[in-house]
Write a structure and sequence with these properties.
Elements (H helix, E strand, L loop, with lengths): L1 H8 L3 H10 L13 H4 L15 H9 L13 H10 L2 E4 L6 H7 L9 E4 L6 H13 L8 E3 L6 H8 L6
Parallel strand pairs: 1-2, 2-3
Helix pairs in contact: 1-2
Length: 168
């Protein structure tokens, strides 16, 4: 995503870093590592991509994984709800469109009048149809409009081909 933002808008590394770090990204299941350009500033409890396998790094990875049970509360639920309700554009990249994940996010009508993008890499037409059906089931009135990429588009392709975000 960093490289896509930089290349698409011809920005310097510092300007791209400023923009990239202003985009709220929530990894509800945690993250095993951050890109090197982020770990330069905060290296206390982060692992860069490709970090060596060591006991220290394994402990850091363990501390950064969130286990979520099917009936348990979502760790970032209020933060996610707050961000979504304030946002005009929402982009789901690498999101598992599982019924439980969807129910946790789409429990009310706060998605009305929003531009929503989503990657569906590797999914077939039947799977995409099921996802749309599940999403519609959460709404009494008409559901928001979702703009899905194609099953051949990776997350980076969603950002570069559809440009759901503009630099202002």
């Amino acid at each position: 995503m960093f490289n896509s933002i930089q290349a698409s808008f011809g920005l310097s590394i510092n300007k791209t870093l400023e923009i990239f770090t202003s985009i709220p990204i929530i990894h509800i299941y945690g993250s095993l590592g951050d890109p090197d350009f982020l770990t330069i500033h905060d290296n206390n409890n982060k692992l860069p991509y490709g970090a060596e396998l060591s006991l220290k790094n394994i402990r850091i990875a363990i501390d950064n994984i969130n286990i979520i049970s099917e009936d348990g509360p979502l760790k970032y639920s209020s933060e996610i709800s707050n961000l979504i309700s304030k946002s005009d554009k929402i982009c789901f990249l690498g999101f598992g469109y599982n019924r439980i994940n969807l129910a946790r996010l789409f429990f009310n009508d706060y998605l009305d009048n929003k531009s929503i993008y989503g990657s569906v890499f590797g999914l077939g037409n039947a799977e995409l149809s099921e996802i749309k059906s599940i999403m519609k089931s959460f709404y009494q009135k008409s559901p928001p409009k979702f703009k899905f990429g194609s099953s051949s588009e990776r997350s980076i392709d969603i950002l570069t081909n559809h440009l759901p975000f503009s630099i202002t």
